Amino acid sequence: MVQAAQKTHAMRVLFFVVFLMFGWLPAVGQGSENQNELFAAALEKADMGDADALALVAEADLHGRFGQPKDVELALEKFRQSASLGSALGQFGLGLIYDEGTIVERDLNEAFRLYELSASQGFAPAQNHLASLLIGGAEGRKDTQEGERLLRAAAAQGLPLAQSNLAAFLSDFRIDKNLSAESLELFRKAAAKDHPEAQFQLGQIYQGGFGVEENELQAIMLFRRAAEAGHSDAQLKLGMYYETGRLVEQDLDKALAWYQKAAASGNEVAIAHLAGTEFQSQSDKLIKTSRRAGQSILSWWWNSLLEGFIEPLVVNYSAIGIVMLIGLLFTTIAIIYKAVKTIVLLPLKLFRRKPPPESQKRVI
User: Fold this and answer.
1) What is the mean pLDDT of each run of 10 residues along the chain (364 residues)?
2) Quick check: 202 and 231 in contact, CB under 8 A?
3) CB 226 within 8 A of CB 234
4) Start-to-end CA span in the chain (Å)
5) Contacts 24+ apart (CB under 8 A), 244-250
6) Which CATH number among 3.90.980.10, 1.25.40.10, 3.30.1330.130, 1.10.10.60 corresponds to the domain 1-139?
């Protein structure tokens, strides 16, 4: 009996770690050996109708993890079965599906109902999501007091997402420049658990000196950790440091790479930065080009012209840019033709000069 209870608890922990960390899930066949063993046990229990095990297997079916083939319809059926059996895991998983609205039509009322059922059983992720809906006033149900209570309950269980959300809720240091000691401690706890949003926010705190002594080196370290975990705002920040060379060695290649990663995630500031003149300016390109050892002067000039003028001209001005480019090419060809003609034909003219007329010959 004790062994069965331990296995159930272990499966809850596995579900909590693997399903609920939002983006930090292992790919197919890449879970730890212990996780794979627990999942194998969950498969057996799911076949026997265990509610929590059904939710765990449903998550694997939904995303194609732990060697399970991706099957959205089967996952949805298992989540519904798990939720109907009273599993807090299944209720939360199904609530998340209705909240996101990617598999089924979005239904926030149903998401509210399922989150409430799961949260009433003390399930931290459900408490966090329900709090977010209440604080945000979804479906006209704004209740910041209840939202804070739920966030505190989830944060007390050690959920990094709830700790970060509660810290942000208690002190918006970006607006009032004030940061409470409680918020700082919550950000630190979540960041220590490698939560990217908490790492980014803590980086901003150290960068601006909000409630702490200003420490940009510490900020850069935190931005890097968040950026490597895929946080687009942290990637943008790191790109700016590499572009300007502030407190790091200037490296325009690394700056561009971080900007591109942030833009690929849909970061509008990064997209605008790449499309604008700040990073694509000719001076930056000349600096970059001049570092290429062994290039001839002609090659250096052409690359500078191409990257610093022609490329942004075509990209930014489309049809007008193309017309101007064609004109530039014809002008360049004409100049080259004239230069070659002059260089090649001038010696021939000198060697083939006609003798002077008889009247101009000197008489010796």
Assistant:
1) 47 46 36 77 94 95 92 97 97 97 96 98 97 96 97 97 96 72 96 97 94 95 98 96 94 93 94 71 44 42 50 49 65 72 56 46 37
2) no
3) yes
4) 134
5) 246/216, 247/216, 247/217, 247/220, 248/220
6) 1.25.40.10
Distance of CA 243 to the CA centre of its chain: 18
For 55, counting Cβ atoms within 10 Å of its Cβ (0-12 exposed, 13-18 middle, 19+ buried), the class is: buried
Contact by Cβ (8 Å): 93, 19: yes
Q: Which residues contact 224 (CB under 8 A, 6 or more apart)?
A: 234, 238
Contacts of 132 (CB under 8 A, 6+ apart): 147, 165
Cβ atoms 10, 54 nearer than 8 A: no
pTM summary value: 0.70
State how far the Cα of 41 lies from the Cα of 52, in Å rounded to an integer. Answer: 12
Domain ranges of the chain: 1-139
Q: Give the burial class of 288: count Cβ atoms within 10 A of its Cβ; 0-12 exposed, 13-18 middle, 19 or more buried.
A: middle
